Amino acid sequence: MKHPTAWNFGKNGAGLRFLSVLLVCLLITAALPARSTAEDAEQPTFCGFEEHTHTEECFERTLICGETESETHTHTEECYETATICGYEAHTHTLECYADKTADVENATIWRSSVSSAHLTGDWRHDLVEIAETQLGYQSSERNYTVEEGRIKRYTRYGDWYGGEECRYCDWCAGFVSFCLFYADIRNVPLSLACGAWVQSLGDAGLYRDAADYTPKAGDLIFFCREDDPERAASHVGIVVGVTEDGIRTIEGNRTRTVAEFRYQRDESTVIGYGALPENPNRLIQNRALKQQLPPLRRSVPSPDRYLAY
Ligand SMILES: [Zn+2]
Ligand SMILES: [Zn+2]
Ligand SMILES: [Zn+2]
User: Fold this and answer.
1) Which domains does the chain have, with CATH numbers?
2) In which band, very low, low, confident or very high, does the pLDDT at 148 lie, cut at 50, 70 and 90?
3) In angstroms, rounded to a whole number, what is the distance separating the alpha carbons of residues 141 and 106?
């Protein structure tokens, strides 16, 4: 095939043509890494389909009118029935086809072992921070996800722990905090997977504090709203792990894909309020026991069936 004439410049046509081809190759090579890995042909798929686009050869047209063409009958489209004969379903892989729904799925044994380095003391604020710290570095699944309205929602242990299959792809900031409360063996505090409802239920339990008139402490839940939300509705939650005169340190899930530590100014405008843990009713007894046997009493973490009894 001839190249477009614009590529043939006088005597040096061949040379320029070579350079152009080289340039095109270089551009294609440079463009390759920008492609999504999911679109890579070598990436395994889990949809169970082969990619197939029907061509003309995939269809067979059968005359069904029962007539022959004559002066009174000319075949129209309605005279034919079209059937697919290739044996394939038309299918183009989408992002969802590359999701491995079995990858990184966890169970209660893994969850218990993930918190096993924590030393629970019965001081609920301390224990909540302690459990949160064991979760630092946990990442939502790379390969196990679902696609909702074009958005990738990844598997997390916190959604799965909270509600199994129904919640494993849910937004997980509140799931992370609930998980920590549960494994810190903190009672009499409502758990939730939704920030708005949680502010409500903590309020009903007398545990919610408005940011305007409260000095946060390590071990508080910290609620945020979106920057541009005039209603200042709760949209995110984390755990306060440290407070200085002008700064707050938190551990949060789902601000990024990783459970990580964050820092804020004390007057951070997106902070709307706090969940203040109640005193552990058994703490006095435990404190007495603790004084007698240091290092701190290491208690076993609760099992999930205890959670069901809350
Ligand atoms: Zn076909
Ligand atoms: Zn016909
Ligand atoms: Zn597919």
Assistant:
1) 98-280 (3.90.1720.10)
2) very high
3) 11
Which candidate, 277, 235, 37, places its Cα nearest to that of 152? 37
On whether the CB atoms of residues 277 and 219 are closer than 8 A, the answer is yes
- Reported as a single tens digit per residue, the pLDDT across 89-102 is 999 999 999 999 99
The ligand with the least distance to the CA atom of 76 is 2
Neighbouring residues of the ion ligand 3, judged by CB less than 5 Å: 47, 49, 93, 97
Tens-digit pLDDT profile for residues 157-175: 999 999 999 999 999 999 9
Q: For residue 120, report the distance from its CA to the centre of ligand 2, in Å.
A: 83
Least confident of 27-31, 39-43, 59-63, 192-196: 27-31
CA atoms of 213 and 110, how far apart (whole Å): 40
159 Cα: distance to centroid of ligand 3 (angstroms): 26
